[in-house]
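Sanity check. The docking grid for heme C depends on where the pocket ends up, so I'm generating a full predicted complex first rather than guessing from homology. Inputs follow.
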Amino acid sequence: MQWADPARLAALLLACLLPAAAPAQSLRGALEWLPPGSLNLPELTSRPAENLAGGRQQSFYVEYGRLAFRSPDVLGGNARKAGLSCQACHPNGDANRHFFIPRLSDRPGHVDVSHSLWSARAEDGRANPLLIPSLRGVGAKPRLGHDRRMTTLREFTRNVIVLEFDGNEPDALLLDALVAYQQVLRPTQAPDKRLTLQTDLDDFNRALGVLRLPLAEENVALSGRVATMLRGQIGFMHERFEAPPPRQILEAWSQDLRAIAEQAEAGHWPAARAALNRLGQAASNPPRALLDAAPGSLYEPARLQAWLNKPVR
Ligand code: HEC
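Predicted complex below; grid placement will be based on this.
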């Protein structure tokens, strides 16, 4: 039987390790699903600062919204396959001034959001790239969008997900959370920050906290959803490494999250909560093999530039 073939089995197992559409601004997803020239160094090596009203003490809604904002699986179609999330165009709630997709952009920071690349149904037959706006202070705006047609963040956000990017209908909690996150985004004068393995690890550790609530409430569906989003965040780190040791560490964390979701499904709540605690400890004290691999990885701008310059892969 062909499934018994060990090589095939190994390939299958590997394919199960990480969710298919892992990577906010994904390197490998974009290569596969966006036209050549859709990635550039500045957007992949730095991020605007994030200033949230209330600082680091945020509600579950804001934290879940923050994670969902960074999760491609909230969107659908090619955006999701390419690893794009809200964060790709609105990094840390600001505007990506470097965003450029050949044919969909006429200049950096602009993109056509009514294009068949995103959704065949939303195609309006016109080339009409729009400036990607910053979302800092968006909660205080009386009207939204270039045509100022919509009045609520909730309506606008649903429209972005379902109509523009062909995503599934978001449930009420997901919408509440995305709105709650956008409502606390505030202006800041702080300069852009270098994107490093450490900043990604800090974000991942912060996002792990989101899983505590559904595990405490013993909510199977939400535990699974959050675990999938977290595995996507691991994917963003994973794709920047080529050497096996750091990749294996990240794959093990991803497997831990899958096991937690399975324990939740089986009703083994104390075991799931204990596993999350262990993962939290491991991720906040990452093995040296991971940290030491950062300089040789695609977190390093010079290496990333060389990788982007390779003509064919
Ligand atoms: C491919 C890039 C892209 C992605 C992905 C994206 N947006 Fe946008 N966003 C835009 C552009 C372009 C506009 C301007 C549209 C307009 O003016 O009608 C915009 C406008 C907005 C606005 C209106 C802001 C204002 O001041 O009027 C909100 C709110 C918003 N986006 C939220 C989101 C959320 C939430 C997500 C994820 C669910 C998301 N966006 C994903 C490009 C993007």
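Relevant for the grid: The mean pLDDT is 92.
Also worth noting: The pocket of heme C is lined by residues 74, 79, 84, 86, 88-90, 111, 113, 130, 132-133, 135, 138, 141, 144-146, 153, 156-157, 160-161, 178 (CB under 6 Å).
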